[in-house]
Amino acid sequence: MNRKKRELLLRGSSETDANLLYFAGIQIPDPFFAFTLGGRKCALLSPLEAGRAARGANLDEIFDVSETCARAKVPYSDFSALCKILKSKRVSALAVAENFPAKFYADLCREGFDVEIRAAPLFPEREIKTERELREISRANSAAAAGFAIAEEILRISKITRGKLVFESRPLTCEFLRAEIEKAALSLGADSMHTIVAAGDGACDPHNEGSGAIRANSLIVMDIFPRLKSSGYYGDMTRTFLRGEPSKEQARLVETVLDAQAIALSKISAGVDGAEIHGHVKNFFIENGYETKSSKDGWSGFFHSTGHGVGLDIHESPSLGAKSCVLKAGNVVTVEPGLYYRGVGGCRIEDTVAVTKTGARMLSNYHYEWVI
Fold first, then answer.
1. Which of 80, 144, 265, 302 is most buried when burial is the number of CB atoms within 10 A of its CB?
2. Whether the Cβ atoms of residue 310 and residue 316 lie closer than 8 Å to each other
């Protein structure tokens, strides 16, 4: 049976909606409609954006809201303009994403359109990166590496006073290091929002951004995931540092995580199930005596996935986790095993790689020396 031909309709800001950015190829802060017409990619934009988009967007046709409303002799409204365009092109059936605004969904139905909500992924082809996309992700990771370099230098020249790190006569804090990392990324054209700089037990909650003074001899997890301002592509890297002298428990923890990452990297290639890679990492930790369990203080051990896809979203398909997901050439994934035990500290080591037919192609580059 033939399925009804539907035109794709999107609504949102391409600064925050990766599907819209992928479709339109331009970052626009205010919400707008983008849609297909017989295979052509179109957008309905205000006069503020129409000219800029005509010069820089990846669109076949741009409709101006003001001009469309004026010709139709209706009050200025991008929804009214959209309906006029679609009806003039005899479009009756639409497909929208799961995050399409409910108000506009209801309004379209009232206008007589047959609207289908399409399950994710809206653009499965996003999973396979082009060489241009790989270069952008590598460039974003260069901004992360610059953040590590400045943070490492600050740690190196900090003094140890009464068990705390002191930088330029003030206690060195997670907040200060995070700000310096974010400034370094910004200087290379990337926003590094929600950078994690967490020390000691604070690093045992993997998404805790970190706060307060950093003590000497404590593990410091730095997770930097900059987004390029020009293209919207993310990088994602994590390193763990320690200023001072590590304990035997800390040293063994970090070396085990480094070994686990090396194992995971060696298993990556097209055709391999991401869940299988995740299983190898879990088993390696168990074999080395690192148990994962939950208590009143939260989880300890290894309790997150081994990795995730990266691109126009910081977390996207495919995954290296418990759910089966066969890798394809051109996928981009992080490899980020970690161990977290209060009283010892947390450690996570993360790099971004492209999947190839023969293995993993590194898209990030920073050393693994961790004791400063």
1. 144
2. yes
Position 1 scores a pLDDT of 42
The Cα–Cα gap between 212 and 300 comes to: 22
Give the integer Cα–Cα distance in Å for 12 and 23: 12
Would you state the structure tokens that stand for residue 289, as one six-digit string? Answer: 């005596």
pLDDT in tens, 190-226: 999 999 999 999 999 999 999 999 999 999 999 999 9
Run of H or E residues at 101: none
CB-count burial class (<10 Å; 0-12, 13-18, 19+) for 190: buried
Q: Which pair of tokens denotes residue 331?
A: 């996928």
Q: Measured between alpha carbons, how far apart are the two ends of the chain, in Å?
A: 66
pLDDT at 4 over 90: no
- Is the pLDDT confidence value at 184 over 80? yes
Residue 336's contacts (CB-CB under 8 Å, 6 or more residues apart) are: 236, 238, 261, 306, 307, 348, 349, 350, 351
Looking at every residue in the chain, the average pLDDT score rounds to 97
229 CB contacts (<8 Å, ≥6 apart)?
Answer: 189, 190, 191
